[in-house]
Design the sequence.
């Protein structure tokens, strides 16, 4: 039996051969990926996968910015590193920074310029350390913040401050669906383009939620036909699965990388309903200790859901760029979504 | 009587109590207010109190005393204030403490701050006392800047020569520790060495320092555990979790760090670490730390600990935490309903804990038996098994120091079980409460009695007492209701009252009630009735609340005021129109006011030619007396005259079923009274200027009907922002523009009122 890695390599090889015979139409969207782990390495599987999809960019989460209550200041957390030497990708790297809403809400306006300077320095420092000084220089920086009314002014001021300090670099940021639907209320960030996050659209904490990652019914409420958002928008699509741990019907935490397959074969768990597994014996699950009586509800995204979502997006967003960004690059996910299937989403 | 002030004091007092966890007092946890009758702190020493408070990660250090400073105090002398030691240890800069050392050696030209110079500990150093401690603190302060993690900082760059400096400090430390003969200070130097080695990324050296200088210590001191934590952090090996668990338990000030450091990547790493534990107590601590993680399930970990050792001292602590958590759900304050258990707290958890509690009563540590009995009784109480709870409580030995706690819970069980309340019950419950000092110290007990009684009084349709149970007396001003007022008057006039009724009526005077009754009639323009009530007041009865000196009633009540949407300046009231009116006397109180209003109306009825300005002035008066008018505190006592106090929207009375509409908290305000006068004024005049005025102020009356409308216009000093104009006033604005657009008043008001301006020219 082929190992999963071999299967992927075979698929990549076939696709590469096909790609050699058939040019991608000019109008077809380009494909990019988010990389959202702290450790990045250019393993051959990921590189081959990206190459086969002719991925253009890799949006790499460089670090998070959080708020340190005790000190009353921001700090970087989960800083990107490479445990296997310099990571080399032929794709353009887009440093991506996640900023908590709390950090943007709490920071004093007079400290924003300094934060922008920190971000600029940290990005350069990480880029050189992780990808090597000789790597393709980055041309774009993306900020990811679920800004609210209380943090909007600071976040937008930070974007302006970054632009001043990095005038040659394109600036983008993520846009949530509610921000897309209500630009008048939520404001439009001062960036060159946005990445519309077409996922996390349900009630994660509700044990009866069908799928909080991609809920088409909810998506329809936000993706109204022929919407003119004031920014060009790339489309960020979900390629991930997770389990939500519940205790007494209340959510405890997310368990990443948990799928129905692994849970079905775990003798400590019992499937009590589709995508719902009860823990019969306390055990570790992907490094998380779960207790007897807990329920794990899984969520994953199917290709048909993604296609339906793309149909909604096509009808809705009139300011689309020709870029689809998949969230996120992960070896286990690559096994779940064969390349030829993702190609159909272009 | 100043009920308002009294209520404010009570509010602040309750706020403080609520925010501070205390043995007895409202608890405010996760935005949930609840009664606290399980007095957990009776059972545990101060250093463990922090573990009892929170249902989330238990990180608090309890009373937040600093065990490090306590240790220093024991060393240097208990007569030294903790603050003085704390300043010297934590805050005094290195440069200053070195100057102090120079002074101790005889130098006179030292430069130190006043805080340092006057510090009692420094004074002793000047006298050459505790110089060994001074030398140690200098070394510690030199080490401190080199023992910080750069991971959470923006710059990862280390200061120049950082590595060499650390190594130098380690060398110096080794010399100092070898030359130090005092074991206490030797331990401190050892801690510095372990810590320096840790931050020098030299785990082996950190381990070695710990083993050489601290491991064999017979008495485990504060600094021993601090060093153990550093060693565990440096090694991060299979032994580290049990060390973190131990330090977590021993040092309240290191709980946050230790719990966060207590981590596993999977089953193997947990099992390996668990297998490294040398004693059952270490294993139990491992379970406890796993329970305390945000995803931990404490009841199962308690079962694990019980399986290891039923007599573990940790089980009492964990049991108390669980009862605390359940109490939060079981006793939400203002419990107007019969308590419904166990749905609120999850029967499965309660059953499971109760089963464990029963086992502990059989096999647990003997000294914890009373706690387990009380815990069991609490759970029975939360389940609604009141008889069972009382039977359990009877097993608490009469000579136990926790007998008062048992009596309290017994009393609580009888209160929440009540299905009706009669005179005998009122007397019995109140007398039992009043005669028990422990009960009276429990600030939650009387509120619970009032909550429960109040709910029963509503069922029994005794609304006056229900109201007084659920509200402070000053709330009568807010929920001005004739039925309640009359019920309270009847209660006041009863010849024989129960003790509880007397308690409820404390501080309430009949004169205040008559005043409120008069205000109730006044709000409805039933002036004869209002006058009759005000006449019952023996002397001039000034309105209760005094704001900014404008509370005194006068004829300005009859003035118009275009600007008063936008300015609180009383001078903006226009006296032009009302001044010539046929007033018959001064207006100094509500009796005067009602008398004048009645007289003016009667005059207008009799003198048609003079009627228009009088009706207009009466309309203006009703606007000014409305809940949002300048003189709102005349009839709406609770409303201040501050800039933005006029549009607070009331909630609803939580305690009352929908059927009791009369106690709704909505203001009673009838805009038709003012509008009626403006319309009468319009009918009585041909003057377009006066008609224009009437139409404009009729719009204002409609606006006052809704707080939202008022809120919408209150801030309109610079124009409309987000809100749309209220719908009620629109018809009058249209009429004003269409029929009276040529008047001077229209031009004036258009200039002054941005709200109207925005409406006319959006």
Sequence:
């Amino acid at each position: 039996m082929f190992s999963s890695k071999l299967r992927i390599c075979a698929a990549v090889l076939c696709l590469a051969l096909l790609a050699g015979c058939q040019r991608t139409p000019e109008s077809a969207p380009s494909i990019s990926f988010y990389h959202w782990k702290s450790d990045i390495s250019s393993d051959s599987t990921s590189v081959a996968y990206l190459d086969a999809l002719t991925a253009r960019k890799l949006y790499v989460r460089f670090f998070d910015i959080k708020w340190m209550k005790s000190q009353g200041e921001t700090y970087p957390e989960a800083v990107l590193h490479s445990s296997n030497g310099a990571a080399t990708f032929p794709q353009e790297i887009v440093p991506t920074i996640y900023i908590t809403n709390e950090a943007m809400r709490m920071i004093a306006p007079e400290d924003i310029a300094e934060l922008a300077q920190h971000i600029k320095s940290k990005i350069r420092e990480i880029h050189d350390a992780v990808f090597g000084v000789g790597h393709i220089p980055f041309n774009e920086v993306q900020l990811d913040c679920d800004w609210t009314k209380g943090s909007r002014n600071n976040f937008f001021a930070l974007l302006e401050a970054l632009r001043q300090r990095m005038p040659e670099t394109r600036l983008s940021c993520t846009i949530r669906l509610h921000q897309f639907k209500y630009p008048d209320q939520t404001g439009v960030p001062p960036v060159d383009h946005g990445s519309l996050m077409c996922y996390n659209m349900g009630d994660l904490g509700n044990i009866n939620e069908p799928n909080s990652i991609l809920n088409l019914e909810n998506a329809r409420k936000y993706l109204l036909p022929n919407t003119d958002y004031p920014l060009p928008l790339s489309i960020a699509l979900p390629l991930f699965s997770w389990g939500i741990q519940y205790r007494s019907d209340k959510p405890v935490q997310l368990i990443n990388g948990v799928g129905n397959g692994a849970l079905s074969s775990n003798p400590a768990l019992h499937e009590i309903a589709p995508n719902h597994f009860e823990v019969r014996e306390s055990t570790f699950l992907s490094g998380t200790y779960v207790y007897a009586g807990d329920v794990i509800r899984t969520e994953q995204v199917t290709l048909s859901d993604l296609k339906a979502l793309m149909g909604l997006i096509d009808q809705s967003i009139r300011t689309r760029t020709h870029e689809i960004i998949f969230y996120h690059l992960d070896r286990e996910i690559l096994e779940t979504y064969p390349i030829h299937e993702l190609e159909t989403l272009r | 009587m100043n009920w308002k002030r009294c209520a404010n004091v009570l509010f602040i007092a309750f706020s403080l109590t609520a925010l501070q966890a205390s043995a007895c007092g409202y608890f405010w946890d996760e935005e949930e207010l609840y009664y606290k009758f399980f007095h957990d702190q009776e059972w545990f020493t101060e250093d463990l109190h922090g573990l009892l408070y929170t249902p989330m990660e238990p990180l608090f250090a309890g009373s937040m005393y600093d065990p490090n400073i306590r240790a220093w105090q024991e060393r240097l002398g208990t007569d030294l204030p903790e603050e003085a030691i704390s300043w010297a240890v934590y805050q005094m800069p290195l440069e200053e403490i070195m100057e102090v050392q120079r002074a101790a050696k005889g130098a006179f030209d030292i430069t130190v701050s006043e805080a340092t110079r006057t510090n009692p500990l420094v004074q002793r150093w000047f006298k050459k006392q505790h110089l060994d401690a001074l030398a140690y603190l200098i070394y510690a302060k030199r080490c401190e800047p080199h023992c910080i993690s750069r991971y959470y900082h923006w710059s990862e760059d280390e200061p120049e020569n950082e590595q060499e400096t650390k190594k130098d400090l380690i060398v110096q430390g080794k010399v100092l520790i070898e030359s130090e003969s005092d074991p206490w200070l030797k331990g401190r130097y050892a801690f510095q060495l372990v810590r320096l080695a840790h931050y020098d990324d030299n785990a082996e050296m950190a381990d070695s320092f710990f083993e050489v200088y601290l491991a064999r210590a017979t008495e485990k001191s504060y600094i021993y555990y601090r060093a153990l934590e550093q060693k565990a952090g440096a090694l991060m090996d299979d032994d580290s979790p049990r060390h973190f668990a131990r330090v977590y338990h021993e040092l309240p000030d290191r709980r946050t760090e230790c719990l966060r450091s207590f981590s596993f990547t999977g089953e193997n790493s947990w099992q390996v670490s668990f297998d490294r534990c040398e004693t059952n107590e270490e294993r139990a601590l491992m379970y406890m730390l796993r329970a305390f993680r945000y995803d931990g399930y404490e009841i199962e970990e308690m079962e694990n600990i019980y399986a290891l050792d039923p007599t573990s001292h940790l089980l009492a602590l964990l049991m108390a935490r669980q009862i605390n958590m359940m109490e939060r759900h079981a006793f939400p304050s203002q419990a107007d309903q019969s308590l419904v258990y166990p749905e609120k707290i999850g029967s499965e958890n309660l059953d499971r804990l109760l089963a464990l509690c029963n086992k502990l009563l059989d096999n647990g540590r003997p000294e914890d038996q009373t706690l387990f009995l009380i815990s069991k009784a609490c759970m029975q109480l939360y389940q609604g098994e009141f008889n069972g709870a009382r039977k359990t409580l009877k097993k608490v030995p009469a000579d136990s120091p926790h007998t008062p706690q048992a009596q309290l819970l017994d009393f609580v069980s009888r209160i929440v079980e009540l299905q009706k309340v009669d005179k005998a019950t009122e007397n019995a419950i109140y007398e039992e409460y009043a005669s028990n000092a422990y009960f009276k110290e429990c600030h939650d007990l009387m509120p619970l009695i009032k909550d429960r009684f109040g709910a029963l009084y509503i069922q029994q349709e005794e609304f006056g007492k229900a109201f007084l149970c659920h509200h402070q007396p000053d709330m009568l001003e807010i929920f001005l209701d004739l039925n309640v007022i009359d019920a309270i008057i009847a209660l006041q006039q009863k010849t024989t009252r129960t003790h509880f009724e007397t308690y409820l009526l404390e501080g309430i005077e009949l004169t205040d009630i008559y005043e409120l009754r008069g205000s109730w009639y006044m709000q409805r323009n039933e002036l004869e009735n209002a006058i009759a009530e005000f006449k019952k007041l023996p002397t001039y009865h000034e309105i209760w609340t005094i704001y900014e000196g404008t509370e005194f009633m006068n004829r300005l009540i009859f003035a118009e005021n275009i600007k008063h949407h936008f300015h609180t300046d009383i001078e903006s009231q226009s006296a032009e129109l009302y001044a010539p009116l046929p007033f018959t006397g001064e207006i100094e109180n509500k009796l005067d006011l009602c008398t004048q209003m009645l007289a003016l109306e009667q005059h207008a009825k009799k003198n048609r030619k003079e009627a228009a300005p009088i009706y207009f002035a009466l309309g203006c008066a009703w606007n000014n007396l409305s809940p949002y008018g300048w003189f709102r505190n005349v009839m709406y006592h609770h409303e201040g005259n501050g800039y933005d106090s006029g549009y607070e929207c009331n909630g609803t009375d939580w305690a009352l079923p929908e059927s009791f509409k009369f106690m709704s908290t909505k203001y009673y305000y009838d805009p038709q009274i003012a509008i009626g006068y403006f319309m009468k004024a319009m009918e009585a005049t041909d003057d377009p200027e006066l008609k224009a005025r009437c139409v404009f102020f009729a719009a204002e009356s409609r606006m006052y009907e809704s707080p939202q409308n008022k809120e919408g216009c209150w801030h309109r000093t610079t124009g409309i922002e987000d809100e749309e104009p209220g719908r009620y006033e629109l018809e009058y604005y249209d009429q004003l523009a269409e029929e009276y657009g040529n008047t001077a008043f229209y031009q004036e008001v258009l200039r002054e009122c941005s709200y109207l301006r925005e409406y006319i020219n959006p």
In short: The first helix of chain B runs from residue 3 to 19. Chain B has a mean pLDDT of 81. The interface with chain A takes residues 151-156, 264-267, 270, 290, 294-297, 300, 346, 348-349 of chain B (CB under 8 Å). The beta strands of chain B are 27-29, 32-34.
